[in-house]
Amino acid sequence: MSRRGVGAAFCFLATFLYILPNLLAAIISSGSAIQTYTFLLDKNIVQQFTEITVITLIIGIIYLLWAEISEFRKKK
Questions:
Q1: Interval 57-66: pLDDT, tens
Q2: Separation of alpha carbons 11 and 48, rounded Å
Q3: Calpha distance 8→14 (Å, rounded)
Q4: What gap in Å lies between CA 47 and CA 53, rounded to an integer?
Q5: Structural contact between residues 11 and 61, judged by C-beta atoms closer than 8 angstroms
Q6: Which helix (H) or strand (E) holds 23?
Q7: Alpha helices in 29-44 (DSSP H)
Q8: Dihedral over Cα of 18, 20, 23, 25: its sign
Q9: Which end of the chain has fewer CB atoms within 10 angstroms, the N or the C?
């Protein structure tokens, strides 16, 4: 897999991790009151996912930049 593919995969993974806490809270609280949904989102799970999401996004951007820089150097 090329660096661009890896970078794009990390960016897509970061997007998935960004929406995952809301998705899990919505699935768990389906059929329940809205207070259950907000209670689940107030837990520390959102903080943990935010840290992982930022790290994953940074890795994806680094891979994309690395691919573009190496392609630019090859053309010179």
A1: 999 999 999 9
A2: 18
A3: 10
A4: 10
A5: yes
A6: helix 3-28
A7: 34-42
A8: negative
A9: C
**CA–centroid distance for 3 within its chain:** 18
Amino acid symbol at 10: F
For 5-51, the pLDDT digits (tens) are 999 999 999 999 888 877 877 777 777 766 766 776 676 666 677 88
64 token code pair = 């994309």
Whole-prediction pTM value?
0.75
Q: Which structure tokens are listed for 35?
A: 């207070």
Q: In the chain, how many domains are there?
A: 1
* Residue 2, helix vs strand vs coil: coil
CB 56 within 8 A of CB 6: no
Is the CA virtual torsion 9, 10, 11, 17 positive or negative? Answer: positive
Confirm if 12 and 63 have CB atoms less than 8 A apart.
no
